Structure prediction request, 403 residues.
Amino acid sequence: MKAILLGTMATVAALSMTADRTPTYAEDIAPLVNERCADCHRPSGFAPFSLLGYEDVAKRTELIRRVTINRQMPPTDGWSSFGEVAVHSKLSDAELRMLQDWIRAGTPEGPKDKIPPAPQFEDDWRLGPPDQVVRLERPTAVRLAGNPYWRAYFVSLPDGLLERGLVAFDVKPLSPKAVRHVLIAQDPNAASTLMGFGFSTVGTLNVPGKHLIGTWAPGYRPLRLPPGSKLLLENSPLLVQIQYAPTGKYESGQVEIALYFAKGDEKRVASWSTLGKDDFTIQPEQSIVLEDTLVFGEDVEVVAVHAEARLFADQVNLITKIPGESDRTLLQIYAWKLDWVGAYNFAQPPKLPKGTTLTARIAYDNGRHAPANEEREKPGLVTSGPTLMDEIFKVHVLSVRAQ
Ligand code: HEC
Prediction:
């Protein structure tokens, strides 16, 4: 008998489907890949190659085996006990086993007439027609080679829109393969006049949490506030920080930002709160966990979380303690990587009653074998600070008074 790890109902269904026969591309793998991989792995998608037909999948089985077994793909690594944050969840044990069985069996294609049609992807905005689409002014092309890097731009908004407040936004890069993360904030100091059209950053703008608007990343949900609520905008341009990833080809650095404004009856004002610490050191060979808490003074809905950490961080955990209940995970990022930072926007904002304690913990590893120390002879002292070899402990939480 097969060892069965019981998961969700979907897991059980998938298992019973393939328990007595060898999985085939037509009946088992195509539906899985279409649903879990193709959104990114398609010609105009975010991933470097397409996985839209038998040939595309069968010629990459060795790679696919490796990246699914070590849970590298699907890559979106945020999890919450309060429901969906990322669009692409991890493969279940049963799905993973089916994929492995299929590869071991020599990737049989199965009956051609059972191959499901390739999924259609809408390139329209996911939240419907925006009120306004803004673009970067004179963005520079993405570098051809090297590590991911960041640039920031100022984007001014047309008059008359700021006062309305924002209810949602979404982002579309012109070169989807070259853009990994977008952070949008406000620039109350109007530094834009000094900075020209764009400038390099080290991935952190150091804007106080209260000036944040939100973040976007491929594979995650766009930010949308709950009905009847809005984010207030200050009278300043938007500050847009983009993480670019060189692809080896010419890619435009342009992104389009769709903005959705309040219509007038939004009475609740959402705001970002920040947990974290500024003054800390991590000794060589040391692993530490930093922690900070806040207590909500009213019933809230949590809309989004944006964590800031750098190369030595490896796990981010947000735990809620609702009075009289046991602890629950609001968000867990199990393998923090600076070039895979998600946009953790809840599909259904969790409701937390007044008096709930929120604890944010980030674990940092400065050991000899930590990925951040790979290219060093031995670990050095790490201090809190803004550069790429410093560390940050900040977790921003967007919430609004519950109805
Ligand atoms: C959220 C978008 C996204 C989803 C969903 C996704 N991938 Fe990927 N995939 C990527 C990106 C981007 C890369 C390029 C590597 C990187 O940037 O980390 C990649 C790379 C890969 C690679 C090459 C890895 C290497 O080392 O060269 C394989 C194989 C792969 N994905 C398979 C899959 C499979 C199978 C699925 C579905 C089970 C999947 N991916 C789902 C975005 C995605």
User: Anything to note?
Assistant: The first helix runs from residue 9 to 18. The chain has six helices and 23 strands.
